[in-house]
Amino acid sequence: MLRRQKIKSQTINTKGSISITNILSYGTVYVTLRAPDKYESAVIPITPVLAEKTQILDGNVILENNSGTNDYIKFTNLKYTEDDFKNTNVTFTLYADKDKKEKLYSGTISYSYLQGNKTYSVSIGKKLKENSGTAYLSYKYPTQTESELIPILYEEEKYSPIINEEDVLIVNKYTGTSEKLYVTLNKLCSGDIVYAYKLLANGSYSQLAKCNLFCDFRLCYIGVCKSSRRRLHLFAGKTTEPI
To answer: Between the chain's N and C termini, which has fewer beta carbons within 10 Å?
Structure first.
C-alpha cells in the first residue's frame, strides 16, 4: 500500500486557497477533497510550477550619490507591467553587486506611483561609494518571483566649486578687544554654507564659524577673532583648497 504524508489540511469556503511553504520541494503534490458527510475522495496529482518572474517596470531610475548627506534613489514615470497589477504595490531591492551578496536597500512603492506619470524618491542612507560605480536593482510583485537585475550607474560624490577671490569682501570691525569679521559673497546659491577656518601651525585647519545662506542674503557674520594677524580661509561647502 502506498504511504502518503499529509502536508496540510484545511477547511475552505466555495472559493478558497491553501498556503503551503516551499511547495516545490515536494515535487508532485496529491490533493483530495472530503465533504462534511462523505468519505475522502481519490487523490489528484498536482505538479507545482515556479511562479512567473516579475517583469522590469517601464520608467527611469536615477541614483543620487551625495556628499555629506544621504544618498537617494529616484523613480520617474514607473508603469505597472500587467493589468492584473494595476492596483498592486511593488517591492524593489538595490544590491551592491550582481551576485546579490550585499543588499543596500529594500522598499515598497505604492501602486499610486506606478501609473506612468509620477516621481517617487526615497533616501537610502549613505550606501553608495565615494567614487563612481554600479548598483543593481530588482522589482518583485507579491505573487511573482524577483525580476532580472537592472544595472544602474552612479557618479562620484561631488565637491563644491571654489569661491573666486574677487567675489569675497572681508570687513574687519574692531570692537573692544576683538574683531567681528563680516563677509560679502557673490554668485552663491540659496542653501549654500560658507565656512571660515584658521590655519594652524601644523598645517591643518580649525573652523572658526560657518554661515548658512538663504535667498539673496549674502552678508554673513562668520566669527570673532582676537587678533587680526590670523589668516582666514573660506570654503563653500566641501572644497579641496582654501582661498
So the answer is: N
Contact 234, 194 (CB under 8 A): yes
Angle subtended at Cα 55 by Cα 125 and Cα 29, rounded to the nearest 5 degrees: 110
Q: Using CA atoms, how far apart are residues 129 and 37, in angstroms rounded to an integer? A: 66
The answer, as to whether pTM is greater than 0.90, is: no
Q: What is the DSSP string of 190-215?
A: TT-EEEEEEE-TTS-EEEEEEEE--T
Q: Note whether 218 and 188 are within 8 A (CB).
A: yes
Which residues, at least 6 apart from 145, have a Cβ–Cβ distance to it below 8 Å?
A: 50, 51, 52, 53, 54
Percentage with pLDDT > 70 across the chain: 70
**Measured distance CA(80)–CA(115) in Å, rounded:** 7
For position 196, what pLDDT does the model report? 77
Q: How is residue 88 written as a grid cell?
A: 498592486
Percent of the chain clearing pLDDT 90 (strictly above): 40
pLDDT at 141 over 60: yes
